[in-house]
Amino acid sequence: MIRLLRRFGALLLVSVLLVSALTRIVSAGLVPDNGLTAEATAPLPVSTRESGSEVGDLIREITRRSEALDARETAVALREQDIAVARQEVEAALLRLDAAEARLAARMHQSSAAAETDVTQLVRVYEGMKPKDAAVLFEAMDPTFAAGFLARMNADAASALFSNLSPDRAYALSVLMAGRNANAATE
To answer: DSSP state, 182?
Structure first.
C-alpha cells in the first residue's frame, strides 16, 4: 500500500512537471493554438530543451528515490521479521527457564522435605536410645550439630541426655542452644 502511494505520488509529481513544462512551451508561443504546424514539429530552442532535460532529470531522481525507499522498506521489513523471530526465541527460552526453575524448586522442596524427614527420624532414634549410649554419640558430634538435635528432642529425653554428658560438653551445648536465636528480630 505504501509503495502504491509513493508511486502514485511520483506519477502525480511527474504529471505536474510535464504539465508545467507544456504550459511554459505554450506560453512561449512555440506551439500555436490552432493545431500542429511546421513550427510545432521543429526542434525546440536550447532553453526549452534544457527544461525537458530538467524534467527527465527530475523523473530519474524521483525514480531513484522511489527505488531507495523501496529498498529501505524491504530492509525494515526484514529487520522486523528478524526481531519477531528473536522475540519468539526469547519467549520460548523464558518459558523453558520458567519450567526449569519450577522443576528445580520442586526438587529443592523434595530434598528439603527428605532432609527434614531424616532429621526427625534421627531425633526419634536419639530419644529412644538409653541416655548413657546417646551421650557417647553426642560427645563425639560437632557441638553445633549436636545442639540442633537436642533442640528438637522432647524435654525429658534431652534432660536425661544432658545428665550423661561431661560438664564441659553440656555447658558448650547449652550455650549454643541458648544463643541460636539471639540475633532474631524481636519486633
So the answer is: T
Residues of the chain with pLDDT below 50 are 30-48
| Residues 48 and 25: beta-carbon distance below 8 Å | yes
Task: Report the C-alpha gap between 108 and 98 in whole angstroms.
Answer: 15
Q: How many CB atoms lie within 10 A of CB 147?
A: 21
**pLDDT, averaged across the chain:** 81
Contact partners, residue 69, CB within 8 Å, separation at least 6: 6
Which of 19, 16, 39, 18 lies closest to 29, judged by CA?
Answer: 39
Percent of residues in the chain assigned helix, strand, coil, to nearest 5? 85, 0, 15
